[in-house]
Design goal:
Monomer. The protein is α/β, with parallel strands linked by helices. It is built from twelve helices and 24 strands. Bound molecules: shikimate-3-phosphate (S3P). The site of shikimate-3-phosphate (S3P) has 10 residues, from helix 5.
Length: 450
């Protein structure tokens, strides 16, 4: 089943060169945060370029349920009339976050220090994912939570009536956990301190500062120390959401492995906490260049130009880079199948608790398509067969995971035989225009009979 409907089986056939421009949609992380921070501001936040994927639409609906006025003006232009920090109303219904871990974890943080109760649920994927990583630190503020065994959704959170500020060292590299604690800290008096040993995506910190919160970030021997002063009045903003590097990864990787391809992916944010995949591909010998480098809204941005790269080499991906490319390992493993030699990916335990167990989902599917994959609890290796030598031909399970679905469709574009997936429905959570965009470049995608 896809997250919001019947399964959509799809097939990707070997295709001719991919060429043209791939204008990918807005950044998913920034889109969620724009709606949530807009809802926590006093006045009207205007957003352009919002990702209208199901994950973000579910967050928009949630913000309405907590009392914000969220309006879709068409063409990616949205506005949010916020209720202010501490101003959330109690929702009358269960909050359905669909497939989105970012949505549910950030919203839990945002309501945790208000005197309201809310119940959260999601699809089968989200309801299997760990929530204690968020409810444990929220309990330090005084928030109570009642969920299923193993800290799973559906779950009810009772917001702290008299929240206290918190100092919390995030035990795993997770921007969602960091962000949940910071959002909860907004309505606690005094200073909330979050320490992360490894830098993860820093959109929450940047955007909180943009909305007028008082926040400092220090690099120390213990890691990044983020100090937020609670109970600010957040000021509404005009936000132009940059295009998503995690979506750009798909046309970029496809262009590198399909012979003769030359694809331009305009306006991609190259925030160092997000751009690890592109560095890794270049280390593998990819013909990937940054054109028209510029700064937009305080973030480094470039047009990415990806050309067919016949001489890709397997590498050991530095584990220090994992957090900056955590969502890109599935599609990297596809590129690795077309490289000469082994690609080694270590320090990636978090891949096992994403929308699916992404190591397992990719390992099973790649093996079925003729690729050797080895795996351990927090590492995996892909032994590349080199360009033109990847058999393909199998049908893979997408496990309600958009990035698994898109990765196998990219595999089919350059394999010797077509690759199918059981369900392309989840693609709509993050990249609703994937199919027309990729076929517009020359991919041979089709929906098959269920
Ligand atoms: C995200 C953080 C990451 C990432 C997810 C988006 C965010 O999750 O995988 O797609 O927007 O904060 P973790 O916090 O679980 O690493």
């Amino acid at each position: 089943m896809s997250s919001h409907g019947a399964p959509i089986p799809m097939t990707s056939r070997p295709c001719g060169p991919l060429s043209g421009q791939a204008a990918v949609p807005g950044d998913k992380s920034i889109s969620h945060r724009s709606l949530i921070l807009g809802a926590l501001s006093v006045g009207k936040t205007e957003i352009s370029g919002l990702l209208e994927g199901q994950d973000v639409l579910d967050t928009a609906a949630a913000m309405r349920a907590f009392g914000a006025e969220v309006t879709d003006h068409g063409g990616g232009n949205w506005s949010v009339h916020g209720v202010g920090v501490g101003g959330f109303a109690e929702p009358e219904q269960v909050i359905d976050c669909g497939n989105s871990g970012t949505g549910v974890r950030l919203i839990m943080g945002a309501m945790a220090t208000s005197p309201i109760t809310a119940t959260f649920s999601g699809d089968a994927s989200l309801n299997g994912r760990p929530m204690a990583r968020v409810t444990d630190p929220l309990a330090l503020f005084g928030t109570r939570s009642y969920g299923r065994d193993g800290g799973r959704l559906p779950m009810t959170l009772v917001g702290a009536k008299n929240p206290v500020p918190v100092e919390y060292k995030v035990p795993m590299p997770s921007a969602q956990v960091k962000s949940a604690v910071l959002l909860a800290g907004l309505n606690a008096p005094g200073q909330t301190v979050v320490i992360e040993a490894e830098a993860t995506r820093d959109h929450t910190e940047r955007m909180l500062a943009g909305f007028g919160a008082s926040l400092t970030v220090e690099e120390t021997d213990a890691g990044r120390v983020i100090t937020l002063t609670g109970q600010p009045e957040l000021k509404p903003q005009k936000i132009d959401v940059p295009r998503d590097p995690s979506s750009a990864a798909f046309p970029v990787c496809a262009a590198l492995i399909v012979p003769g391809s030359d694809v331009l992916v305009p306006g991609i944010g190259l925030n160092p906490t997000r751009a690890g995949l592109f560095t890794t591909l270049r280390d593998m010998g990819a013909d990937l260049t940054y054109e028209n480098e510029r700064t937009e809204g305080g973030e480094p941005v470039a047009d990415l130009r990806a050309r067919f790269s016949p001489n890709l080499k397997g590498i050991e991906v530095p584990s220090a880079r994992a957090a900056s490319m955590i969502d890109e390992y599935p599609v990297l493993s596809v590129v690795a199948a077309f490289a000469e030699g082994q690609t080694v990916m270590r320090g990636v335990k978090e891949l096992r608790v994403k929308e699916s167990d992404r190591i397992d989902a990719m390992a099973v599917g790649l093996r079925a398509n003729g690729i050797t994959v080895d795996e351990g609890p927090d590492w995996w290796t892909v032994t590349g067969r080199g360009h033109g030598k990847v058999p393909g031909g199998a049908t893979c399970a997408s496990h309600l995971d958009h990035r698994i679905a898109m990765s196998f469709l990219v595999l089919g574009m350059a394999a010797q035989s077509a690759v199918s997936i059981d369900d392309g429905g989840p693609i709509a959570t993050s990249f609703p225009i994937f199919e027309p965009l990729m076929t517009g470049l020359g991919a041979a995608l089709e929906r098959s009979e269920a």
